[in-house]
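Our example pasted here:


***
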Amino acid sequence: MVSYKNGVLRLSSERDEDGGIVQIIKKIYGIVFVLSLFILYRFAFVKLVSTFVAGALLATALLILLFRKKPNISVPYNFIWYFVLTVYCALSTLWSTYYSTNITGTLLRMAVICMLITSITIYVDTQEDLERLISLFILGVSFICLYEFYATPVENWTTGLLGGNLPGNNSNEIAFWAACAEMMAFYKAYIKEKKSYYIPVLFFITFVLLSSSRKAVLMSLIAPMGIMLLATYKPNYLFRIIGILLSVFFVFYLIFTNETLYNIIGIRMKGLSEFLLKKDDYDTSLFLRQYFISVGKKLFVSSPLVGRGFGNFSHLLGENPSSEYLNFGGTYAHNNYWQILSELGLVGFIIYYSMYALIIFKLAKRVFVERDRLSYLFLVFIVVLMIFESGIVSLYSKYCQYVIALAYACTFATNKNQITID
């Protein structure tokens, strides 16, 4: 029997309860999942490795599907979503101005992401499965951060160079994963009341501060506040909110009063505040980002429906030099909204953000109607991500898509021991 439920298209083949073999395969998947996080980071520049890792994850997930009581054939909605998006990106090259091998490489990366996110959706059936992946994500990102400390000479720990030691990796993306792991660890510590998770919370915040990534620092501070705001069932709710606000204030106090932290991240935070206040002396990187956005707007206006073609922003950017800077070809918009609108138009924009709309709609129901506590984490994540996509491109980022897949899985993961709060 063919059915569609919880975001999955199924060809049913009912079986009895999951057997011991499923539990064994799930443990194998967990090991492969942790390894995939580290390997995709460690060998980010080697495309063959990422393809092999994604294939291993998907194959293991398909084995789980084969042996569990669930159906034999399953087509997750997020696979359909990202597959359609990838196909549309490929088709857009038909009307693009430029085509290069870099575009082919990015399309292959998206195919790898498609396998990764599909494996997560197949693996997750219950909230217990999702909770396990959250713990494994925290473990995997801990290995990455520890490796960064190991690979970076001690004298460079305080120079803002953490996160960029290996080719193919962007320090902002590594810091983004650390901020996501900090968010998950805080959920485990505060909502699940597993106090030992406060240790990784402090570890990830330290890493993020030393990475000099403004976005990751702000994410790591805003997300816990969002989770606490939703957890209205906690006793002494008002005092807890005051406590987290004081903690955030203390972190900013350290950033601007500690000489080392000020040189790493304080100066950049000051530049951001001056930019927001429209002062003239904010840092150059923010000026360039504004310029990239202005070019993105022009490209969107020139072809609003279907865009100028996937991967063309960097090429067309070089044709629109500013008076101060002659050429920026080879970069990207540093803004997910204008990257998509300029290259893929309104069609691509609607396809991509349809997943976000679905996640927000379903998680909002689970948070405010069902009072599902796990949904607090991922509703906060998706909202925070949309805020910071004004400064990052998540479209083909494996770092972002991993966590978006977890958020999507939260929309259908069953909670057999759900506690309803009146």
In short: The two ends are 38 Å apart (CA to CA). Residues 55 and 115 are 7 Å apart (CA to CA). The chain is about 65% helix and 5% strand.
